[in-house]
Amino acid sequence: MQSKTILAIETSCDETSAAVLSFNAETGDYTTRAHVTLSQIETHIPYGGVYPNLARREHEQNITHVIAKALGEAGLLKEKTEDQKLPQEIILQLEQILSREKILCPILSDFLGKYETPLLDAIAVTVGPGLEPALWVGVNTARALCTVWGLPAIPVNHMEGHIYSFWAVEEKFKAPGISFPAVALLISGGHSEFIKVTAWNEYTYLGGTLDDAVGEAYDKCARVLGLEYPGGPKISKKADEYKIYLAENTEEKALPEAFALPRPMLHSQNLDLSFSGLKTAVLYLTQKIIKENGTLSPLDVLRISYSFESAVIDVLVAKTKIALKETGAQSIIVGGGVAANKNILHALQTLCQKFNATLHTPNAILSTDNALMIALVGIHKKPIEAPENLRADGNLSF
Ligand code: KG4
Ligand code: ZN
């Protein structure tokens, strides 16, 4: 049978995730055999953002369990019947590969001692971009598993994963029909960029943020307004509440946007983006209100959230329009944590209608970081035979 099965691992930020994906070349069917994601959000809330060394520690503690659960759900985990001790030379190899992952090493060694080698063809892993201490946990786990199980490794670019994330609509799916070239708009906590996709595997960087990423701006703005991390969903919810407020208080209707915030680089005819000025404008506006009124009222929070999100949407829509014109694309692919934002998607959908283009968006759970998208990229790539050569690269580009 022309079928292959891979395990994928993702640890680039604050989600520890593993997925098992099978692809049958005869039928063209992809099957999600298992997908397990453990979010660290609760751990990072007190810091108002992801703290890299804390992320690394959490990944070390949890990754073995997440992988075991995924392999178990895929029916690929079988307990050894006898000797559960690893040979001394394997233990030494593991200690060398995981020399910096002191928490992970004994947990992974126990797991490897307990279970038989699963029926896999390769292991795909995110090698970048992302937080390097976090990335290394996934990369070294893949190196260790590939070494002990005798499997090849597949290094995957996290951003390429976000481009593929809309593929997986159901448990079983086929490659989507899409007209090329496509414009991919990747918007997350660490990235905001436009990529021209000429074919699956063929990418050109068109432009992106010169400073803060969109998600980062949402998170920073939320912190100024006293909202918890991750700020994106909270700000968006407040923006929606403001729209309801406007509808219910008609005298406010003369003021569709309560505060005039900047729309950075709106009129530059290129695909550069910048969000730090918008974030600073929110900070100054908030300070001014507090100075004048002694406090920031709940209505002020709604108004600022709405104003901020409107500015973000205007900029993203204007730039996507330029990208469509520049490339002649008739497809837009959106990916990344911010792609969960219904208001942004709605505005992009409206733009698509004007351009007779199609908008491709991931399932809400696949817009945030996950291993299934890494598996999807990985299953199309040729594995490297020497897993010891895997390296994490926090600044990896396309
Ligand atoms: O892709 P992701 O899970 O991790 C990174 O690679 O950064 O994206 C996380 C980001 C956070 O900044 C979060 O605030 C933002 O995505 N986010 C949103 C929404 N849901 C998550 N931003 C705006 N609206 C949302 N609904
Ligand atoms: Zn991401």
Describe this structure in words.
This protein is 44% helix and 18% strand. The protein has 398 residues and is α/β, with parallel strands linked by helices. α7 packs across α8 (231-248), α8 (231-248) crosses α10 (298-327) and α10 runs parallel beside α11. The longest helix has 30 residues, at 298-327. The mean pLDDT is 94. It binds 5'-O-[(R)-(carboxyoxy)(hydroxy)phosphoryl]adenosine (KG4) and zinc ion (ZN).
Quick recap:
The protein is of the alpha/beta class and 398 residues long.
Looking at the structure, what is the overall shape? Answer: globular
DSSP summary, beta strand count: 11
- Major sheet: order of its strands? 5-4-1-2-3-6
Low-confidence stretches: none
Radius of gyration, whole Å: 23 Å
Largest sheet: 6 strands, mixed
Amino- and carboxy-terminal Cα gap: 33 Å
Q: Structural class of the helix and strand makeup?
A: alpha/beta
Rounded average pLDDT: 94
Number of continuous helical runs? 13
Strand content: 15-25%
Walk me through the topology:
Elements: E1 3-10, E2 15-24, E3 29-39, H1 41-44, H2 52-73, H3 88-97, H4 104-114, E4 122-128, H5 132-149, E5 153-157, H6 158-164, E6 172-173, E7 182-187, E8 192-199, E9 202-208, H7 214-224, H8 231-248, H9 276-293, H10 298-327, E10 331-335, H11 342-355, E11 358-360, H12 364-367, H13 371-378
Parallel strand pairs: 1-4, 4-5, 7-10, 10-11
Antiparallel strand pairs: 1-2, 2-3, 3-6, 7-8, 8-9
The protein binds 5'-O-[(R)-(carboxyoxy)(hydroxy)phosphoryl]adenosine and zinc ion (ZN).
